[in-house]
TrEMBL record:
One of its GO terms (biological process) is negative regulation of DNA-templated transcription. This is Transcriptional regulator BlaI. The gene is blaI_5. Gene3D superfamilies: Penicillinase repressor domain, Winged helix-like DNA-binding domain superfamily/Winged helix DNA-binding domain. It comes from Gimesia aquarii. GO terms for molecular function: DNA binding. It comes from the Bacteria. Belongs to the BlaI transcriptional regulatory family. Keywords: DNA-binding, Transcription, Transcription regulation.
């Protein structure tokens, strides 16, 4: 019996997705080859074999995070799910699993972790004004 698709991203899969999301923010060209992804990871100090990156891309396609956009080599890939969508889902899962669904408990924990910088405090105040 086949194993059901995991919805969660592993640390390495998330690392690859960040390459795509970063490229989406910084350039108009949002489709990448496996080599592009490997090169971007290498620039960040992460040296993975081409076959490892290709396998991770295939897994991300199976999980519906990436899609292949052409039929000829080199194959091009782009994101199916945005950073906001994925991060929101992951954060929601974490709040549910760790804090019993309580955003208040999450916020209290964040504040206990370390003191906010002036920049963080200002950003938080702006968010609270906008959301109130």
């Amino acid at each position: 019996m086949a194993r059901p698709k995991a919805k969660e991203l592993t640390e390495r899969e998330l690392e690859l997705m960040h390459v795509f999301w970063d490229r989406n923010q910084s350039e108009t060209e949002t489709e990448l080859t496996v080599s592009d992804v490997r090169d971007a990871l290498q620039k960040k100090g992460r040296d993975l074999a081409y076959t490892t990156v290709a396998t991770l891309v295939r897994i991300l396609m199976e999980k519906d995070f990436l899609e292949q956009t052409n039929e000829e080599r080199p194959f091009l890939y782009r994101t199916v799910r945005s950073f906001d969508e994925v991060s929101g889902s992951m954060l929601g899962d974490m709040i549910q699993k760790v804090f019993g669904g309580s955003r208040e408990k999450l916020l209290v924990r964040l504040m206990e972790e370390r003191r906010l910088t002036k920049k963080e405090l200002k950003a938080l105040e702006e968010i609270l004004r906008e959301k109130s």
